[in-house]
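Teaching assistant here, posting this on the class forum so everyone can see the example we discussed in section. The complex has two components, and the goal was to see what a joint structure prediction looks like when all of them are supplied at once.
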Amino acid sequence: MRTKDFAYWLFLAPVLIALTLVVIVPMLLGVYYSFTSWNGITTGEFVGFQNYIDLFKDERFLASLWFTTKFSVISVILINFIGLSLALIVTSRIKTSNLLRTTFFMPNLIGGLILGFIWQFIFIKVFASVGEMVGMESLQVWLSTTETGFWGLVILMSWQMAGYIMVIYIAYLQGLPKELLEASEIDGASSFQRFRYIVFPLVAPAFTVSMFLTLSNTFKLYDQNLSLTGGGPYNSTEMVAMEIFNTAFVQNTFAYAQAKAIIFFVIVAIVALFQVYWNKRREVEM
Amino acid sequence: MRKKKNWKLEILGILLGILWLLPFYLMFVNSFKTKKEIFTDVTSPPEQWSFDNYITAFQELDFLQTLFNSLLITVSSVLLIIIFSAMAAYALSRAKSRISTILFFIFVAAMLIPFQSVMIPLVTVFGQFEMLNRGGLIFMYIGFGASLSIFLYHGALNNIPRSLDEAARIDGANRWQVFWHIIFPMLKPITVTVAILNIIWIWNDYLLPSLVINKTGSETIPLKMFFFFGEYTKQWHLALAGLTLAILPVIIFYFFAQRSIIKGVSDGAIK
């Protein structure tokens, strides 16, 4: 097949049309709208960089950006730590290995919205009830303060994504040469030494993959945020994706929301390009 | 010594497993309680295993219609994504040229764009063309899902030698036949991965359908979940029954295909 063949374009046509209409055209329109005062009904005037200047003074937007960053950093560390620990447990010679894998992975199949609602029940009802039983007042205010809302989201995401990251680590751990591990065992290496000097360097690529996957997932989080805290109390647990949504569809300032969405894209793109660069560098080293 | 260590790990693993299932257990037992019972005690099993909540939730959610909508949208979108992405990836992998490289780059680059960045113009434009309905939604899923699927198919196709295509062509098969009869069946493992990743995503997706579907009776399962979560009233007994009903299809799917699901998800993440 050659690119000048009719068949070539026929094979590509459906996805090219869909991608163009669903992603490319809206993206280009989005960039254009971000420089106008468009509100969804009237086209609005061209306002230059006004929206971009405004958003850097927008406290609610900056607060959501900061909250999202804090949330992402802590979640990424926790999810990877728990995920790797789970992977090490289920790949050791234990009988319940398969059952445990299935269990830890299960939350990933269920939508974030539903998981958020389940945990809302746990934090509000179950925590309060347990708090009453053991006399711990701090358990009775969950999700009603910024602090507990933050940790609620972290717990929910760690519970959900640890199993996903576990699966990735398992794939790398199973690729480890068994002879190497056995040889080191015979040579008298302790399990910590084996982990530190053999397992760790060989699963290093898994860290890169998992780090960026969790970072991208937590930074773009919306569903869990919506169903668990709804951004409350007083928008203090609102993450960027939700802030953009509210700017657009609650306050009806489309162009302004679009400018925020472009900044959001730039941040996500920079992180992703950094990952590509990181991978390339690692490949060179190896 | 080895035995003792594994025994400890086994216990630790089982305890963690129980911890992981605890939220589901609490959801399940409380879904059978009355409103009053949930108010007084959330940790113990219900006094009476009554299905009243389920009957109410089933009716309020219009469950059969909602389930049908979710199935219709997921199955059609995933089938179309598979067919169109496999075809596109085939063209891109067989015609090695600058155009193919550029197009492939565009597809991959599109994966970088977060949904929020295109959401507002997308909804406005599709709204103007009266395309905010189930058909429009399926079309959008093709646009959003194509990139990753093409990327995965492209990788797999590069491992299938082109001499195979040429041999079939000499035997008189046209390109369409070569692809569907010879190449596509060889792509089965990656097709399973593509199918699973897209099923999980589309089945659970909330934001896009919430913007596109605005007609009563067309809602998917995630869209209906807000029914029991009003601004001021929370009917936990009904909500928990509704959530359990919503999870049930996923659990059944997981039960039958867990091996392929876990493999598909890990392949999709690593490649």
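For the discussion questions: Chain A has a mean pLDDT of 90. Residues 35-285 of chain A form a domain with the MetI-like fold fold (CATH 1.10.3720.10). Think about how each of these relates to the inputs above.
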